[in-house]
Amino acid sequence: MIGYVTLGINDLDKARTYYDGLLGTIGAKRLMELDENGFTLYGVDMATPSIAITKPDNGKEAFAGNGNMIALQMQERDQLDALYNKGLELGGSDEGAPGVRGDEGEMAFYAAYFRDPEGNKLCAFRLGSA
Amino acid sequence: MIAYTMLGTNDKDKSFAFYDALFEGTGIKRLFKTPAGGQFFGKGPGQPMLCITSPYDEGEACFGNGTMVALHFDSTEEIDALHAKALGLGAKDEGAPGWRAPDVFYGAYFRDFDGNKLCCCKMNMGG
Known about the structure:
The complex is a heterodimer. By secondary structure, chain A is α/β, with parallel strands linked by helices. Chain A is 20% helix and 38% strand. A 4-stranded mixed sheet of chain A has the order 1-4-3-2, with helices on one face. In chain A, strands 5-8-7-6 form a 4-stranded mixed sheet, with helices on one face. Chain A starts with a strand and ends with a strand. The mean pLDDT of chain A is 97. By secondary structure, chain B is α/β, with parallel strands linked by helices.
């Protein structure tokens, strides 16, 4: 259903460095780089829904939406912690440390929230017991 | 990699009605709601979902500039129909259906009532 989601950025070099480091921790890499708007697509392969960073097509300043968020599914809690820590280490801002939201157990929602340096909100989560 | 993506709205009922009508006949349907009343739309288990929600901070929702959700479809005819339907429902046109990259990328663009930009596309990229 979702082919890809784009996030608006103003500083292309900085954002590429950020997402290279962040998404590299979960095995995603640059799949495409276009001259137009600096569109840079990250993913594990072309068949999997991917994330692109881009300058806005309208040529105006990029800004983050309120209510917008991309949620990434993790395989293990350790992997989630590592992604969150990397997200902050690279210059992101905290929006909620890793932990179980709701009850622990078979359907536990273990999640962490952060923003990239331009304010785009991301979530990493894992369903299941520890 | 992506499990779901959220878009903010200031009028959930109006927005849900828009997406209900837009997705009718595509196999995308309402799935479940968040505790805060956000609505997930999707095709079912294992497929990335779209959630329309009011912002977590309870402030005003705002689209992101540069932010866009691209929905993948298998046929250009379906994309043409969805773009026309979206505009008929009151969406703002951001680009008529057409091949942006010949034989590689077919897309159509519009914004919902909250200004969130969507693309309906078909990609032939060996995926």
